[in-house]
Amino acid sequence: MDFLKRYLLPRLIQYLVVIVVGITLVFLIPRLSPVDPVQQLINTIRMQGTYLDPQAAEKLTETLKDLYGLKGSLLQQYLAFWKRLLRGDFGPSLFQFPVPVVSLIKASLPWTAGLLTVSTILSWIIGNILGGLAGFFYQKRWAKFLENFAMVIRPIPYYIFSLILLVVFAYLLKLFPLGGGFSIGMRVPFSWSFVLDILRHAFLPALSMVVLGSAVWLQTMRLIVSNVIREDFVVYAKNGGLKRGTIVFKYVMRNAMLPQVTGLALSMGQIFSGALITEIVFSYPGLGTLLYNAINTGDYNLIMGITALSIIGISTLILLIDLLYPIFDPRVRYK
Amino acid sequence: MTILKAENLNSFYILDILGIKQSVMAVNGVSIEIKENEIYGIAGESGCGKTTLIKTIYGMIEPPLNVMEGRVLYNIDGKLVDIFSLDEEELRGLRWEYISYIPQGSMSVLNPVTKISDSFWDFIKAHSNYKDKLEVENSIKEHLNAVGLPLKVLNAYPHQLSGGMRQRVTIALATILKPKIIIADEPSTALDVVAQRAIIQLLKNIQQTQKNTIVIVTHDMGVHANISDRIAIMYAGKIIEEAKTEEIFENPLHPYTKYLIKSLPKIGDKSYKVSVPGLPPSLINPPPGCKFHPRCDSFKPECKQIEPQLIEISKEHKVACLLYSKEMGQ
Amino acid sequence: MNLLKDLLRDGKFKFGFITLCILLFLVILSFFSPYKPTMWNVTPRDLPPSLKHIFGTNSQGQDIFWQTTFAIRNSLIIASIAALFSRIIAIIIGLVAGYRGGRMDRVLMSINDSFLVLPLFPILILVSTLIKGRLSFVSLGLILGVFGWAWDARVIRSQILSLREREFTFTAILSGSKTLHLVFKEYLPFVIPIIFSTIINNMSWAIGMEITLAILGLTNLEIPTLGTMLHWAISYQAMLLGLWWWLLTPVVISVFLFVSLYLLSVSISEYLDPRTRIQRIGIAKE
User: From CA C180, how far away is CA C195, in angstroms rounded?
Assistant: First the structure.
């Protein structure tokens, strides 16, 4: 019970705060812009040649205002916004009218979820193990090589790295497809060849994310380990003549992992953003490409929907990771 | 009879500060001989090189620490073995079975994410091939009892124990494989007075039961008076006096030792206490000749030029001071 | 000067510094460009690199080399504005939260953590979609600045927290210093080094964001920046048409820019970190 109060409650509160702050931003930003989206839409319609008599125009404005949630005072709009959100209603996609935004997102979500989960877990594990070994055996040549490698890779933004991979492996070397989630014309039901096809398409995006992710985890783990090996209990273990394997894994890594778990939680927002960008480069049919198309077609509702759901989704993921932390650190479990 | 011997040890820290190389001469020509079944104390103020000496005889040599000269010999099965001639694996094997170590301030020497019982098993598994798990468990419980800890400590994590309890755990760990020599580095310094007494008593009991050797390093002369059989006084990287405890207290010869003994409070004694004037010398640029001469009140001009050697003045009483070597006609 | 010499000992800093200097040199060259950056068709199109056009020309009829000089300049300006602006916010929030403590601190840090954790990419897209094309690069810089302060604010706050407990604080208060005076005069010198090392990181992030947003077509595409160059190269299908120099130039320059900024930031923060300073006092074997 004490643990609940000490650990769980503050995190739940923070979780709710993040969501409220984020959703409020999503709410406020469009309303802060000097552009009136309704007027813009009507102007676009007019410019396309459709004739709108004043009455029809007014009615259209009203409907659009309703659709955009722009009716009433700011506070009224805010409350209405939350009401709709809690019902899971983000309105219809403006481009693919009247398909609700939520169903478009639902279709793309599994692709992003798959890519994100697999590559995050892989890169975290690989990065931590390599970083841990590089930190422990810091004088060996391969350790220094790894460090320099990570140092060069890490600052490269997702877009550029993915682009380089795309150009080299898909365009120049033609080893992998140029994009998409699966080849057109493939049979959808679960045949082996279908699964392989998906994997082929997913390989480069996943590679991009795993390499960039591992570089980050490698670096931070190496730094943490270089500090942990100076800790009293590691020196004591060495002096006690414990086997090296025991020291590396049970003493160093298990302790170095703790800040990495927290780090994972903190970086989820960035990793997610990176996943979206990677998807765009590879035209991978996840939320990223959906977002890209929404931008190009000016599908405002869709953009809002994706942003709002991303905020909620990422915050929840972070909460879950935070809740896993006590499993790793007994000092938090017991007072 | 000799369990550990150090011959002319010179251990320096070689530092490279912004391109300039400097050596900290922490252990400067030290030779000691430690016997079986005794408690050997090493005393001296902070920064005199005690910890470095311990590290050297235990074999914990890591850069920037370098052993420039000298040998450390362990008596293994009757033969004297130079530990620096052993490879890493052999040295690792000796640890805990032949010689173990109780660290200074056991606040954070235990793995925070594992239980105490895990720590015990880690040390045991690393060194012995046990056949019977139950037997080992019983042995662990026995040792916990011997140090005065309740059995439920095994299931606890280090942060749940108090400082005194953690110190007892490290003592139990150090004795579990019944090593021939245990090095205790300031075992009581980080504790309150009551716990101090208990720990010191505990160490005494262990030595009497297991009949092994304990090397106890502390600046607290009171502890030495209580527990040590022989004491070696260290100053600026050198042993300047070594004798049986009673000798040191009743008949201190070196001026520094005299100061040390005089500064100890005695019940009923209200006289003004004098401490050693001046500051400990730099180990990078030590004073020439006798390293104590800037602070010594028996200073003579020769002290600046000649470095006194550790010479046996009377039965088992060695001193490194020109006052006495002159008398010996050296 | 001694500081510079000291820093230059570190291989990482040396590489980063030299690369950055070369890039800055290119920026200076931009003031001598014979072509105006916003004009099209000032040179023949699609020429591969040659002596006359060192990096070749693109499909819009511009010399890529001179475009690049402007691109680096503008990208750096945007990044600097973003970094500066976010530092100011970070300092204010960090100082207030650190010094006041209590409820104010908790509320501020709660909001701060939200900014830290939120996926900024979709939010930035939301912002840019609305102001599409009307962004001058100053406003882009400001917008990026609004989102980049969270990490720094926390770091500054923890520094202030530790300073608050130090003796000189009590001395200052007991001798009658006013709060604001205390905070600015006494604490700021400690805070400046931290800011310096994170400023570079922030600039890197801002450039990256600018590139990503530009490629998606969300910024003012007429201003030459590294991002807009990439955008045009991609829209004109430079890759498929074999105009590799058009695509490669901004990519390579970006990579160098990022790597050098990163190396600088890492070496500076290592230099300032007292623990690694001791490590630098090195381990020499006789």
Answer: 19
- The one-letter amino acid code at B183 reads I
**Chains A, C: CB contacts under 8 A, how many?**
121
Q: Which two structure tokens, joined as six digits, stand for B193? A: 């007075």
Q: Using the beta-carbon criterion (under 8 Å), do B95 and A241 form an inter-chain contact?
A: yes
Q: Are B3 and B75 in contact (CB under 8 A)?
A: yes
Residue C281 has its nearest CB partner, among B16, B63, B68, at B16
Residue C280 predicted with pLDDT over 60: no
Q: Is the Cβ of A231 closer than 8 Å to some Cβ of chain B? A: yes
Task: Give contacts of C110 with chain A, Cβ < 8 Å.
Answer: 14, 17
Domains of chain A: residue spans and CATH:
110-298 (1.10.3720.10)
Distance, in Å, from the CA atom of A304 to the CA atom of C130, rounded to the nearest integer, reads 11
pLDDT tens figures, B116-139:
999 999 888 888 777 788 888 888
- Give the neighbours of chain B: at least 3 Cβ pairs within 8 Å: A, C
* Chain A environment of C216 (Cβ under 8 Å): 280, 292, 295
- Please report residues of B whose CB lies closer than 8 A to that of C281: 15-18
By C-alpha distance, the chain A residue nearest C106 is A14
Angle at B281 between CA B280 and CA B287, to 5 degrees: 145
Query: What chain B residue is nearest to A245 in terms of C-alpha separation?
Result: B126
Separation between Cα atoms, residue B172 and residue B143, nearest integer Å: 6
Comparing alpha-carbon positions, the chain C residue that sits nearest to B14 is C284
Residues of A within 8 A of C111 (CB-CB) are: 17, 21
Q: Return the DSSP state at A92.
A: B
Distance CA C74, CA C216 (A): 18
**What's the predicted TM-score (pTM) here?**
0.82
Task: Give pLDDT < 50 ranges for chain B.
Answer: 328-330
Asked whether A210 and A119 are in contact (CB, 8 A), the reply is yes
Cα–Cα separations (whole angstroms), residue A76 to A24, A80, A81, A255, C281: 13, 6, 8, 50, 64
Q: Using DSSP bridges, classify how beta strands B99-102 and B230-235 pair: parallel, antiparallel or unpaired.
A: unpaired
ipTM: 0.84
The three-point CA angle C253-C258-C263 to 5° equals 125
Chain B: residues touching A (Cβ < 8 Å): 58, 60, 91-96, 100-101, 103, 107-114, 118, 122-123, 125-127, 157, 159-160, 170, 173
- Show the 3-state SS of B162-209: CHHHHHHHHHHHHHCCCCCEEEEECCCCCCCHHHHHHHHHHHHHHHHH
A133-151 pLDDT tens trace: 998 888 888 888 888 888 8
Chain position carrying tokens 């007027």: A39
Residue of A nearest to C226 (CA): A160
CB contact under 8 A, C283 and B64: yes
